[in-house]
Write a structure and sequence with these properties.
The structure is a homodimer of 205-residue chains. With 205 residues, chain A is an alpha/beta fold. Helices cover 41% and strands 18% of the residues of chain A. Chain A has eight helices and ten strands. In chain A, the strands form three sheets. In chain A, strands 7-4-3-8-9-10 form a six-stranded parallel beta sheet, sandwiched between helices. Chain A starts with 7 loop residues before the first helix and ends with a helix. Chains A and B meet through α1, α5, β10 and α8 of A and α1, α5, β10 and α8 of B.
């Protein structure tokens, strides 16, 4: 199991499988099949079997997958069998939504700080968080050894802050800004935008 | 070119290619290669060529793809060579963020209404929108023949509103609520959640 040898495209599907499995577990289910998982996530059963088999033999012929076991294994593979501290940069609508989002804790993430450069926002509260000044971003992130950031800034300032995040040691950025960020090779960026998701459905209309 | 014969997994990648191509066009580029696209989106060049070739012969050996031509074709395939009216249900932080999001218009979408069931929110303004009562949802959506909705409600009420959306004729739902929605087979749901995207990066940390 070598991190460099598993195609990125397979890695992108594993969190989708994990989410589906966690929902099944929440509903009290104990075992599942690649067919049932496929129906839930819209990916073929053959593809799911192939993806999962990259990491070893998890299923048994005829009895399918143990949901709890597969959850544990996927969490281990994706390294979310631990908690990651995450920061939010940008305290607009999206930053507020993320700061209040309840779905991080049971997926391996813990929001610990939120930053903005707007003097009117700095010092204000969002729930338990106090909005901090981006001027202190590098120092604060380095001191807390934070590796993951969610970026909810306007396009015009997103690259400048990204450079600071990289300088501070951040290695993974979830980008809500509508631009491509330039980062070194050892930094991962995931772009998240609603239009892309909508376009995955219009094909079928 | 039969809608039923292209695997869903390929369809999910096309909007990612389209977004990358639109950024290249914005930067003044005229042609690209599957290799260059692959570097930008984190998918292998071979996979990109295979995906695109499902729909016909778009590239020329040695000269690559014409960006404008490929954009036109992908927009046509994904049916975003037209404008789709979209509604938002749920006027919380995420609903506000979506109502103000500037990235829909040039991707084929036009937000036209926003609904909530909170008496304190109904009648208030978000930009040019007035928040409407979900009690009028079915009637309003039917009258305007709307097919696409973005759902930013708490998990507890998401299924009930989904049933109303389906009754009103909605066929595509972008779901921000942290639950699996039950819908008829002819209705598409895309789930969007930040934790899934974060988990696509932790593997590499």
């Amino acid at each position: 199991m070598n991190a460099e040898k598993i195609p990125n495209i397979i890695i992108t599907r594993l969190p989708v499988y994990l989410r589906a499995l966690q929902r099944m577990a929440d509903n009290g289910l104990k075992t599942t099949s690649s067919q049932e998982m496929g129906d839930r996530v819209g990916i073929s059963a053959a593809q799911i079997r192939k993806d999962i088999s990259q990491f070893g033999e998890f299923g048994k012929q005829g009895t399918g997958y143990s949901i709890d076991y597969l959850i544990d294994k996927l969490r281990e593979i994706l390294k979310v069998d631990r908690m990651w501290d995450v920061i939010i940069v940008g305290a607009g609508d999206m930053g507020h939504a993320l700061a209040r989002y309840q779905g991080f804790a049971n997926r391996g993430f813990n929001v610990v700080m939120i930053f903005d450069n707007d003097k009117n926002k700095i010092g204000q509260k969002i729930g338990d968080f106090t909005i901090e000044d981006t001027a202190n971003l590098v120092e604060r992130v380095k001191a807390a050894d934070i590796k993951i950031a969610m970026l909810t800034l306007p396009a015009s300032v997103a690259q400048g802050i990204t450079d600071k995040l990289v300088e501070a040691g951040v290695r993974a950025i979830l980008n809500y800004a509508p631009i491509s960020l330039s980062v070194p090779e050892n930094v991962k960026v995931q772009h998240i935008d609603p239009a892309t998701h909508l376009q995955r459905m219009t094909y079928y209309l």
